[in-house]
DNA sequence: CCAAACTTTGACCCGTTGGTCAATACCTGA
DNA sequence: TCAGGTATTGACCAACGGGTCAAAGTTTGG
């Protein structure tokens, strides 16, 4: 079981690291879950540790502070989310209005169904160290990029009518980030309908009436 | 312990009460300021007391808990705000689109200029006693009423095109409640311009293009 | 000017929470 | 099987924050 390890020299350079990496991911994922659901203040490190069946002290073996853990959690959450949006086929083909609509719908859908209130994480505490703030801001920028691209394209092609791209995007994100709260009491079909409604409403922000959806 | 139930000549029936009332207002106003600026968790009772040049203990002479103080603060803030919106002349005459526009602009203006981030107060902690929650919900309902009335009127008269009144209102409020954050770094003219921009953008939610603004 | 009512103080209680650390358990490769 | 790194524990600390309370200070009406 071990003799045939034909990789003796510099044996397993990454084995240990990889294991450590996985553990970190585990922790970060769990943390993201909790922080996403209840917010920064409301979740203590013991809550996180408990969920992992571990002691608080262990967390400090991997992270040097709560802020760092939270930042990592936000990063994980954000990257995963962004990746999923970027991987959405419907957001890459067809009329720009339809692409944006698909993107918005997916975004809201993920927020509502998988990360209740997660976006509140993007509200970085002012008192955090600059480094942390920068990391999260960069994340946000990347996350917004896809939306911005589409909106700009729509404007350029005359399909959208927006006052200012920035303003429009901010309003969109504000509304999207709170949809989970509004949908909290809904389930199944009703929730789906709500997602549709919000999507349609948000499309009006770029000047696309909901009925014209057909494409 | 008190035989003087025979209040003489109803002398000053309210003198003492009124003084107490004023003190309470003072406290509540200060609290509203702080909580509005930094949020529930980030403000301790000592912060409030400090600002009033008083000891934490004193606050408990007027309020039985932090929750109660905060609730009172929210109520004060909310009522004042609502009253100012309702007193806005421009929101009572002219085409419905112009009225709504004036209302939105004023709302955002107040938020940005006077109550930075105050609206975050409306996010009531779930773990609060039902009574408190009810008070704030009622407040919110009254606050929304004016907006709802106008939107409904616009829809009825065919001036607006909205998917759902509820959804539209929620998106509007979400965006409005976060505008202060976006405008935090702006001052003077730039801030005014931002308020205009957001107003125009939000008008698109009801299907009114910004250029038709004239008024 | 006094006594009763009203205010405020400041010391104190207690649970929570972020953070530290020496000691111990666990692996793993040789 | 044993050494060495890796992971985890659990006890502990200090600061903070909400809340209590008896005692002392201040107003006020008579």
Count every helix of chain A, treating DSSP H or I runs of 4 or more residues as helices: 8
Low-confidence stretches of chain A: 1-12
Structural class given helices, strands, pairing of chain A? mainly alpha
- CATH topology annotation of the domain at 72-210 in chain A: Tetracycline Repressor, domain 2
Radius of gyration of chain A: 21 Å
Average pLDDT across residues of chain A? 86
Order of helices and strands of chain A: HHHHHHHH
Q: What's the name of the CATH homologous superfamily of the domain at 72-210 in chain A?
A: Tetracycline Repressor, domain 2
Largest sheet of chain A: none
The largest inter-chain interface, given as chain pair and residues per side, is: A-B, 27 and 27 residues
DSSP helix fraction of chain A? 55-70%
Distance between the termini of chain A: 60 Å
> What is the multimeric organization of the chains shown?
homodimer
Q: Provide the CATH top-level class of the domain at 72-210 in chain A.
A: Mainly Alpha
What's the total count of β strands of chain A? 0
Give me the CATH architecture of the domain at 72-210 in chain A, please. Answer: Orthogonal Bundle
Could you explain how this protein is built, in words?
The structure is a homodimer of 215-residue chains. With 215 residues, the first copy, chain A, is mainly α. In chain A, 66% of the residues lie in helices and 0% in strands. The first copy, chain A, has helices at 15-38, 45-51, 56-62, 66-86, 96-113, 130-156, 165-183, 188-205. In chain A, α1 crosses α4 (66-86), α5 (96-113) packs antiparallel against α6 (130-156) and α5 runs parallel beside α7 (165-183). Chain A starts with 14 loop residues before the first helix and ends in a 10-residue tail after the last helix. The relative contact order of chain A is 0.11. Mean pLDDT of chain A is 86; it is low at 1-12. Chain A binds chain B through residues 41, 161-164, 167-168, 170-171, 174-175, 177-178, 181-182, 194, 197-198, 200-202, 204-207, 209-210, and chain B through 41, 123, 161-164, 167-168, 170-171, 174-175, 177-178, 182, 194, 197-198, 200-202, 204-207, 209-210. Chain B binds a DNA duplex (30 and 30 nucleotides) through α1 and α3.
